Amino acid sequence: MFDGLKDKLGSFREDVEEEVEEKEAEAAAEAEAADDEESSTPAAAPDHESSDEEDDDGGPGRLRQAAAFATGRVIIEEEDLEEPLWSLEMALLESDVEMSVAEEILDSVREQLIGESRKQVDTTAELVEDALHDALVDVISVGQFDFEQRIAEADKPVTIVFTGVNGVGKTTSIAKMSEWLGERGYSSVLANGDTYRAGASEQITEHAENVGRKVIAHEQGGDPAAVIYDGVEYAEANDVDVVLGDTAGRLHTSNDLMTQLEKIHRVVDPEMTLFVDEAVAGQDAVERAKEFDDAAEIDGTVLTKADADSSGGAAISIAHVTGKPVLFLGTGQGYGDLQEFDPEALVAELLADEE
Ligand SMILES: Nc1nc2c(ncn2[C@@H]2O[C@H](COP(=O)(O)OP(=O)(O)OP(=O)(O)O)[C@@H](O)[C@H]2O)c(=O)[nH]1
Ligand SMILES: [Mg+2]
Q1: pLDDT > 60? residue 181
Q2: Strand pairing of 326-330 and 338-340?
Q3: What structural domains does the chain harbor?
């Protein structure tokens, strides 16, 4: 998962390390040269007081560097980061990280690294890692809330509606979510709001049988809101905690989507509407998330097929672009392959040293 991105973040760390090592070598050479000068030309008529500002022999930067070197530190300056940051930007964009999100990450890393010697500095690698960690966590964790707690606190039955384009994994995610909830002690019923596609009912029924849940379905062509409503009635009558409502895959540009989701809202007032898309779709998934959120406010995203995604761009960008959190990652085709999205854990993994 996200291996390509992981490699690229590793390269940034190496780039900065290289720059700093070069700088250290220069500062060391300079300190040596200054020593030599001092011992060979003692008392060179100090007719003016030397200060950082007035020093024109190599500029204040060199003096500061030499001083910093004497204390075992090297100051990272803007120019040292220019090339590594440029490479990082290219790497993020290549990884399908959305432009504004990449810029935010760069600004944050730049701000945190420049002038870094004033604090107690560890190794350059640690510095870079901290800066990347903070920058990534900031953009990734936008809007995060505790999903399980929200389920626990909501009035029962809790209705969750899943929306998104064709074939991204909505129905599979519903079955996985049902498992996930079951493991945490919540019962659930599946409602087939995809009354549009032929075979949708059979498909969700098969998933439901596999995970041992009840499905509420109507005839093809029926009203999705009515199916989900029946799901809620069934849940109320049978003390079921959660109603998971499927919908037909459709384009965010379709007026139908708005009309349908609006009707579902009117009829069953769901606790959450989750947008489902596939991580492998990269920028397209980010675009769609934004458009779905504009068309029919979403509460969060389920990002499927993360197991097949090496870029990580969608996972990094979606929350920042929509202002709504990524809540789950689909990590395979099994019913257990749904992970609660944990920004800290994801960033830790992205920045972990190669084995
Ligand atoms: N590798 C992988 N495959 C997944 C994941 N989630 C779903 N899939 C696969 O994606 C395909 C489509 O999944 P569905 O659940 O049918 O997608 P959908 O959004 O309901 O599709 P429509 O109802 O046609 O709009 C299936 O073959 C799933 O097994 C995942 O996290 N990882
Ligand atoms: Mg489906």
Answers
A1: yes
A2: antiparallel
A3: 3-41+52-140 (1.20.120.140), 147-342 (3.40.50.300)
